[in-house]
Design a protein that fits this description.
single chain, 276 residues, mainly alpha, 14 helices, 72% helix, globular
Length: 276
C-alpha cells in the first residue's frame, strides 16, 4: 500500500510539473484562435469563438512559410555538416594516439566557454573578406562546427570497445569506414540527441543571422516574425496573428521531436547500445 501511495503522489507531482511546462504552449495555441483583444486579456483562457481564420490568414497573407523554409534549409544543412565534422573530430580524439591530444581537446573545449557574442566581430570580418555576408552560404559556413557536438560524440565514442576498432583495422577497413559503418550505427542515439539540440538552436537563432543578413529573402523564422509582426507589418501588433505565426513556427519542431524522442532520450541518458 505504501508503494502504491508513493507512486500515486509521484505521478501527481509529475503531472503538475508537466502541465506547468506545457502551459505556455497551450496558451499560445489558444491565443492563436482568439481575437487580438482576448489574446491580451490574461483572464480569458478559452476563446469565446474559435477564429481559425487567424492561422489561415498568416499562412496565405504573410511570408511566414518562406521564413520557415529558410530556417529548415539552413538548420538542416548546417546540422548535417556539424555532425560530419563533429564525428570526425571526436573519432580522432578518442581512437587516434598522438602527442598533445588531451591538450588539443582542452583547447577545443575552452572555446566552448567563450560567450558567442565574443566571436561575432572576427566572424563578421572573415565573412565580409570572403564576400559571404547576406547569403545562405555565410549563414551555413559560419556555424558548421559545434563544440557541444564534439563533446557529446566524444563521450559516446569513449564507451565504444577499442578492441572492435583494432579488429576492423586488422581486417583492412579504413578509418572513414570504421566511423560510419561500425561506430555510427552503435552510437546513433547520441547523434540524434546532437541533431535535435543543434537543429532547434539553429532553427530559432536570431542574433547572428540578424547581424549578417539584411535581405528579407534570407530571413529565418525569428527575424521574420519580428520583422513582419512587430515592425509595422501587415498585422502590426495584432497579437492573435503573432500567436498564430508562433504556432506555425513551432509545429515543425514538435513533429520532429515526436518522431525522434526515443533516440533523443537514449542519447541524453548516455545509452549508446554498447554492452560490456
Amino acid at each position: 500500500m505504501k508503494k502504491i501511495i508513493s507512486r500515486f503522489f509521484k505521478h501527481i507531482v509529475l503531472l503538475v510539473l508537466s502541465l506547468l511546462m506545457v502551459f505556455p504552449l497551450i496558451w499560445m495555441i489558444l491565443g492563436a484562435l482568439k481575437t487580438s483583444k482576448e489574446a491580451m486579456n490574461a483572464n480569458i483562457i478559452l476563446p469565446s469563438t474559435y477564429h481559425f481564420e487567424n492561422i489561415t490568414k498568416v499562412l496565405t497573407e504573410s511570408p511566414l512559410l518562406k521564413y520557415v523554409g529558410n530556417s529548415l534549409f539552413i538548420a538542416g544543412v548546417t546540422v548535417f555538416i556539424q555532425m560530419v565534422t563533429g564525428a570526425m573530430l571526436a573519432y580522432a580524439f578518442v581512437f587516434f594516439k598522438f602527442k598533445g591530444r588531451n591538450v588539443l581537446f582542452g583547447i577545443v573545449m575552452g572555446t566552448y566557454m567563450l560567450p558567442s557574442c565574443a566571436t561575432y566581430i572576427p566572424a563578421f570580418v572573415l565573412l565580409a573578406r570572403y564576400n559571404m555576408l547576406n547569403s545562405f552560404k555565410g549563414l551555413i559556413i559560419s556555424q558548421c562546427v559545434s563544440i557541444f557536438g564534439i563533446f557529446l560524440l566524444r563521450q559516446a565514442f569513449l564507451q565504444f570497445p577499442k578492441e572492435l576498432i583494432e579488429a576492423a583495422r586488422v581486417d583492412g577497413a579504413s578509418e572513414f569506414k570504421i566511423l560510419w559503418k561500425i561506430v555510427f550505427p552503435v552510437t546513433r542515439p547520441s547523434f540524434v540527441a546532437f541533431f535535435l539540440i543543434s537543429f532547434i538552436s539553429l532553427y530559432n537563432n536570431y542574433m547572428w543571422p540578424s547581424l549578417i543578413t539584411k535581405d528579407e529573402k534570407y530571413y529565418q523564422v525569428a527575424q521574420g516574425l519580428r520583422n513582419f509582426f512587430f515592425e509595422g507589418g501587415a498585422y502590426g501588433t495584432d497579437w492573435s496573428a503573432v500567436m498564430a505565426g508562433s504556432t506555425v513556427i513551432v509545429l515543425p519542431l514538435l513533429i520532429l521531436f515526436a518522431f525522434t524522442q526515443k533516440w533523443f532520450i537514449s542519447g541524453l541518458a548516455g545509452d549508446t547500445g554498447v554492452k560490456g
